[in-house]
Amino acid sequence: MKKKEIKKLTKKQQLETLEKLKKDLFNFRFQKVNGQIKSPAKISETKKNIARLKTLLEVQNA
Question: How far is CA 30 from CA 24, 33, 36, 51, in A?
């Protein structure tokens, strides 16, 4: 997700997206251990998206 896309979401949608990304990251880690992951780049991309969402949420709360 790009920063612009995240800013368009409501706070509730941002929190829902954050939870979904956390679950996805959890699943990607299991896939990596089992050797089933097709694209290891998804892990780092998901981590970056989580960080973007957390940063934006923190800025909005400040």
Answer: 10, 5, 8, 21
